[in-house]
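Hey L., structure's done. Input below.
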Amino acid sequence: MEQQRPLVMLGDDGRQFAEAAARLIGSARYGISIALLHDGRRIDSVLAALRQWSKRNEGGSASVAVRLLCAPEVLHTTSVRELAQHVEGAEVRVSEGDLQEALIVDGSSALTWSRQSGNDESATLVTDLATAKALDLLYANVWRAGRHVPEHLQGERLGTDVTRRVLMYLREGHTDATAASEMSVSLRTYRRHVAKLMRDVGAESRFQAGVRSVELGLLPRER
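Output:
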């Protein structure tokens, strides 16, 4: 019987990477940890594998903890938060810490990748237990320092006066034209603010954006 190599270089083979990600996630018994630092096809493959795993397990397994650690720019350019809402046991945190992009399963195997130059990416399948555990320990340390999504949104993206004013107009049901006039901005600029804020707070409607702003502590509750 051929012995499995502890490190397998996958190079730039997208299909091989996607298959490896699906295989690892499918083997999870108690933990799936993912670090996403740059937007790109590797992230798409990992999230697609997670989505398929979730569907096969009817929303995921309660016994498997899913952790998604994202760089700020990734959080807002992918469907990470939307996906997490449909995966049982999933939690998303935001970090600017130094961490290798990786998929770690059960602390015993991992898939890592990095952008070398331009759009070229290399990937490595890690089956060596000691190496996988070291990656898992590093991930855990950065995870503990990561911020929950509401905290990140409030502190980094949604804490400005302009943002609070737009959210207030949404909650109070002002028309776009009225709100834009009161803010002394063009209608197009105001609508761009609205579209961005709806993405940031994970709202599908303007009314929901107002409700979510209260839930996240961005606006006070009405008495």
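Residues 129-145 form the longest helix (17 residues). The domain at 7-146 is CATH 3.30.870.10 (Endonuclease; Chain A).

-- N.
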